[in-house]
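Fold this sequence, please.
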Amino acid sequence: MAETKERQRERTDSKIMRATLEIMIAQGIGAVNIESVARRSGVAKTTIYRRYANTDDLIRHLTLSVAPSLDFSALEPSYESLRTVLRRIIDCFDEEFELKAIGVVLSSENDHLRNIANSVIEPAAERFCDFLRRGMASGAFRGGLDAPFLFQTVLGSMLAYKALGAATPAAHADWASNMTELLWASIRPAQ
């Protein structure tokens, strides 16, 4: 029973955070208020006020996280695992807050929004780079890779892919397969 309540609380928090971010992106930070967040999220104002004292408190607590769902530590580095990693990244980013939102936030001049984006991107980059480093250490991938640059390439590709209108799960699988092919040419071990 407690687990169910905890999951429900997490879902509610996610709705509130997502609605807040959507309003900030679409209309600017000044458009965020408890009433607009309640309307957009479908969460009662009283519930939001129980969690946050006011709009400023809500914005201060605005966080997004993909860290728990992006764990690649159990995957042995390989071609297939690389495809799995890329598929998990795009699915997670798109399910949690939409890739378009990340693109808009990254291009924003607002430091608060950029910090929010970095709170999502940095853990994903860290896990991706750790996966590549494990692959280099084991010999599954070529040594000397610039793992952070490869993650930036992946992120840029995802943003462009989303901007061009691809959004279905099948399209995500296609993107992951195509990106794997592209990256594999650079990271496969020497033969």
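The chain has nine helices and no strands. The chain has a mean pLDDT of 84.
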